């Protein structure tokens, strides 16, 4: 049966104390919204609709960055979760099957949990995701008998006895799309908050003789982000899980608690990750590669047998083929390093292609930016770039060519050639000794004064 998703993301998130809409705050390098969209994507939804409001432009841009095809509807005024779902109606026109409602600020719902909800739809017209709360606080309370759900009472509207219930509403709800839209269309707002509560669809459905049910999950999955403290808590929870998963998958983490993963980091079996390594978005590390201490990687690919760091930075577009060696204080951006390239120390390679087996000496810089445009440096196979070579792009160094240390290379170097672009050395015999004597005499004269 087809499934569609509605992701509620219109709220401002006042308690974040931020100019940024809440769902754009990041956990593991990705906006909260992407976490929710990723969880939902596991259901292969036919349609995804994001309900934006505060910061709608930025929120829709982020949503489209994750899923180009997703629909965006704008809820101009935040009149409640039920009102928010009702805004999705035009974007869901003609869609059949089930609809799952997720919150953009609740990043950790597992795909398995959503699947369990869809499965429970065989028994109930409306399925709500609940959890046993350690501290039920202001969550909505589920009035249920076993799996059968009678209704949801919001904290503000609950009696003392209802507030004592610890089975709480996560906010995730699932029903037939047409039924859900029909129900949210008939919601009232006669309640303590004066809002159109999505939670009221349970009671409305039951009045029509339909059944509602609860599926439960671990409280950790329902962690919602409302404050910066909860954002930090979410980050810690994500990292703890990602580290445990990496270890489980056969990755060595020397000091797991110091390694930070992004939502999409992929690390192969038998890779070794040293202490204090940070992965930004878009990194894949192949099996058996080693990332030494204090490296920062983003948008890059490290192949099998390669080693990086300590203290290296791989920026977007860094592509390291097998057995590449990148050493300390090296920065690589938008550059392809073919098999066996060695870049040992203190080097910047930006917008470059480096052929297999080439050695890049310490202090080499690709001068890729002229202040207006970026240019490419092309270095062939088995070339030798002497230490402190400045490669002023666009420039090409051929296969097997050599550049002298300290050269400023402004013109192409043919294959097999040596290029020297530096001042010729001059030697003055005995001059150093004379210079020192003069200087010492000067200092002695000054000290007498
Ligand atoms: C909601 C539930 C509550 C549940 C809790 C779980 C209702 C009425 N209450 O309460 O039972 O225990 O979540 O966290 O649904 N949003 C919109 N437009 C709106 C209102 C909200 O897009 O008009 C979005 C928010 O941005 C947020 C989500 O919906 O992502 C939840 O809204 P929020 O106001 O935080 O609901 P709660 O009062 O926490
Ligand atoms: Ca909330």
TrEMBL record:
| Reaction catalysis annotation | alpha-D-glucosamine 1-phosphate + acetyl-CoA = N-acetyl-alpha-D-glucosamine 1-phosphate + CoA + H(+); N-acetyl-alpha-D-glucosamine 1-phosphate + UTP + H(+) = UDP-N-acetyl-alpha-D-glucosamine + diphosphate
The residues the record assigns to binding acetyl-CoA are 362, 368-369, 387, 405, 422
UniProt region (N-acetyltransferase), positions on chain:
250-449
Locations listed in the record: Cytoplasm
Gene3D superfamilies noted in UniProt = Hexapeptide repeat proteins (2.160.10.10), Spore Coat Polysaccharide Biosynthesis Protein SpsA, Chain A (3.90.550.10)
Region annotated Linker, chain positions: 229-249
UniProt cofactor(s): Mg(2+)
Which InterPro entries did the record assign? Answer: Bifunctional_GlmU, GlmU-like, GlmU_C_LbH, Hexapep, MobA-like_NTP_Trfase, Nucleotide-diphossugar_trans, Trimer_LpxA-like_sf
**Transmembrane residues, as ranges?**
none
Major site of localization recorded for this protein: cytoplasm
Per UniProt, the keywords (alphabetical) are:
Acyltransferase, Cell shape, Cell wall biogenesis/degradation, Cytoplasm, Magnesium, Metal-binding, Multifunctional enzyme, Nucleotidyltransferase, Peptidoglycan synthesis, Repeat, Transferase
Give the enzyme's EC designation: 2.7.7.23, 2.3.1.157
UniProt keyword annotation of Transferase present: yes
Q: Where does UDP-N-acetyl-alpha-D-glucosamine bind?
A: 8-11, 22, 75, 80-81, 103-105, 140, 154, 169, 226, 315, 333, 348, 359
Cofactor: record remark: Binds 1 Mg(2+) ion per subunit.
Q: What does this protein do?
A: Catalyzes the last two sequential reactions in the de novo biosynthetic pathway for UDP-N-acetylglucosamine (UDP-GlcNAc). The C-terminal domain catalyzes the transfer of acetyl group from acetyl coenzyme A to glucosamine-1-phosphate (GlcN-1-P) to produce N-acetylglucosamine-1-phosphate (GlcNAc-1-P), which is converted into UDP-GlcNAc by the transfer of uridine 5-monophosphate (from uridine 5-triphosphate), a reaction catalyzed by the N-terminal domain.
Protein's name in the database: Bifunctional protein GlmU
This protein's species is Gemmobacter nanjingensis
Q: Which gene does this sequence derive from?
A: glmU
